[in-house]
Specification:
195 residues; alpha/beta; Rossmann fold; 4-stranded parallel beta sheet; 4-stranded mixed beta sheet; 8 strands; 39% helix; 18% strand; globular; EC 2.7.4.8; nucleotide-binding; ATP-binding; ATP binding
Length: 195
């Protein structure tokens, strides 16, 4: 990123199945200079996941300590595990004058908005509801009740798009990644959350 670009905290969120992880992976591939925050989680690593790369895998006690010491910018519980964004690396990145990208769920995006109102919230939307339904159904062999619950949640998450500053449609991963990078580097106030 150009050193004269003001630091900007950008949050990417959107419904389950919209392709947030895929778009962020494409951002990293096409623009390796973009910094993406690594979340902390209490869940166990999955095969192939690396501590500090995919997540910071922490114990429940360590996660409690992060909450108690105001060490998380946001956090949420999902499927019996907790996930959160360590605030120190984000502050360090922004203080150095470089933009920071968070890929988080809607609940976390709302917490960031409350705690860092200068943050730019970007909603990743599917090209259509039918496409999102297809993506969620194609995830595997989940029971119908689980798929229906995911669709209800996804509809509620889609309804929240109006809470965001910008909407990026994920109709083409490379194009969506480039649009997101453009938003990351657009001029904005360079405020650091919590200071």
């Amino acid at each position: 990123m150009a050193s004269n670009t003001p630091a900007r905290l950008t949050v990417l969120s959107g419904p389950s199945g919209v392709g947030k992880g895929t778009v962020v992976a494409e951002v990293r591939r096409r623009h390796p200079d973009v910094w993406v925050s690594v979340s902390a989680t209490t869940r166990r690593p999955r095969p192939g996941e690396t501590h500090g790369v995919h997540y910071h895998f922490v114990s429940d006690a360590e996660f409690d300590r992060l909450i108690e010491t105001d060490g998380l910018l946001e956090w949420a519980e999902y499927a019996g595990n907790r996930y959160g964004t360590p605030v120190a690396p984000v502050r360090e990145r922004l203080a150095a004058g470089a933009p920071a990208l968070l890929e988080i769920e809607l609940q976390g995006a709302r917490q960031v908005r409350a705690r860092a109102p200068e943050a730019q919230l970007v909603f990743l939307a599917p090209p259509s509801w039918a496409e999102l339904q297809s993506r969620l159904a194609g995830r595997g062999s989940e029971p119908a009740a689980v798929q229906e619950a995911r669709l209800r949640i996804a509809q509620a998450e889609l309804d929240a798009a109006g809470e965001f500053d910008r909407v990026v449609v994920n109709d083409d991963v490379a194009r969506a990644a480039d649009e997101l990078v453009g938003l990351l580097t657009a001029p904005s106030p360079g405020l650091v959350p919590g200071e």
